[in-house]
Write a structure and sequence with these properties.
Blueprint: H1 9-17, E1 23-27, E2 39-42, H2 52-60, E3 65-71, H3 74-77, H4 79-87, E4 93-97, H5 99-106, E5 111-114, E6 124-128
Parallel strand pairs: 1-5, 2-5, 3-4
Antiparallel strand pairs: 1-6, 3-6
Organism: Desulforamulus ruminis (strain ATCC 23193 / DSM 2154 / NCIMB 8452 / DL)
Function: Catalyzes the interconversion of beta-pyran and beta-furan forms of D-ribose.
GO molecular function: D-ribose pyranase activity; intramolecular lyase activity; monosaccharide binding
Length: about 130
């Protein structure tokens, strides 16, 4: 048994196999998980559990992020969530795309990780960076 860090084997494997510029998508409970993406990890237990931010923080504890992609709608529909997401990425480039385009981009992901979040547009595409 691991003594700390991420305990979920599938999430550990996803992060370990992620290379530079690969996408990992952390989602709310409602975002469709495309069938063509091999790694789809659904942590949703009930509404709000786990929260999007809790799951995002867990992934960020072990993943180097070069930039992020958000749906532009998050700025107006869920401004508090938008601010919370941005707080986690100081100095990181942020790309905004329409939600329809965001959903298309998720089909390019190495993996998707679903939370139980019920806040609209609480989704982020993490573009992996490198440690050097």
């Amino acid at each position: 048994m691991k003594k700390g860090g991420i305990l979920n084997p599938a999430l550990n494997k996803l992060i370990a196999e992620t290379g530079h510029t690969d996408y990992i998508v952390v989602t709310d409970a409602g975002l469709p998980l495309p069938e063509n993406v091999n790694t789809r990890i659904d942590f949703a237990l009930k509404p709000g559990t786990p929260t999007f931010l809790e799951l995002l923080d867990t992934v960020l504890s072990e993943l180097i992020v070069e930039r992020i992609i958000l749906a532009e709608e998050v700025k107006t529909i869920s401004p508090e969530m938008h601010e919370e997401i941005l707080k986690r990425f100081p100095g990181i480039s942020v790309e905004y795309v329409p939600h329809v385009q965001f959903k298309q981009k998720t089909k390019e992901a190495r993996g998707l990780v679903r939370s139980g979040e019920f806040t609209p547009y609480a989704n982020v595409i993490l573009v992996a960076g490198v440690a050097y």
